[in-house]
């Protein structure tokens, strides 16, 4: 069995910088400076701690097991395999959608 870090290393290559921040993995594929890495980790920490009343925004908040991937100005949150992004839809089709065929 491979560790999560080994799997990320195999996927993103040996030049990627990989940090574990609590239960979240942070991958930098763009060769950032140490200052940029610290700023990004602070951003991830703020996203985790900052409460939000917006349900859509809550989906974009990193959670345990997620991988946050930084590539220049772009940031992608890859959800953990067990995380349900749309629990209502994952449990079956809502009324009206299945019946429309």
Primary descriptors:
single chain, about 100 residues, alpha+beta, 4 helices, 4 strands, globular
Helices, strands, pairings?
Elements: H1 4-12, E1 17-21, E2 24-28, H2 34-49, H3 55-59, E3 67-71, E4 74-78, H4 87-90
Parallel strand pairs: 2-3
Antiparallel strand pairs: 1-2, 3-4
Structure description:
There is one protein chain. By secondary structure, the protein is an alpha+beta fold. The protein has one domain (4-100). Helices cover 34% and strands 20% of the residues. The chain is built from 4 helices and 4 strands. The chain has helices at 4-12, 34-49, 55-59, 87-90; strands spanning 17-21, 24-28, 67-71, 74-78. Strands 1-2-3-4 form a 4-stranded mixed beta sheet, sandwiched between helices.
Range of helix content: 25-40%
Structural class: alpha+beta
Percent in strands: 15-25%
The number of helical elements comes to 4
The N- to C-terminal Cα distance equals 44 Å
Q: How do the SSEs run, as a string of H and E?
A: HEEHHEEH
Morphology call: globular
Strand numbers in spatial order across the main sheet? 1-2-3-4
Main sheet attributes: strand count, strand direction, barrel closure: 4 strands, mixed
Task: Indicate how many domains the architecture comprises.
Answer: 1
The overall average pLDDT, rounded, is: 81
Total DSSP E strands: 4
Query: Radius of gyration, Cα only, in angstroms?
Result: 16 Å
Low-confidence stretches: 97-101
């Amino acid at each position: 069995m491979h560790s999560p870090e080994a799997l990320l290393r195999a996927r993103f290559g040996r030049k990627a910088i990989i940090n574990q921040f609590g239960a979240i993995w942070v991958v930098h594929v763009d060769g950032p400076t140490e200052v940029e890495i610290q700023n990004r980790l602070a951003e991830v920490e703020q996203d985790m701690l900052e409460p939000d009343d917006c349900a859509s925004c809550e989906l974009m908040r990193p959670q345990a097991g997620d991988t946050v991937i930084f590539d220049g100005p772009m940031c992608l949150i890859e959800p953990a395999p067990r995380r349900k992004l749309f629990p209502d839809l994952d449990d079956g089709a809502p009324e009206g959608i299945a019946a429309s065929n």
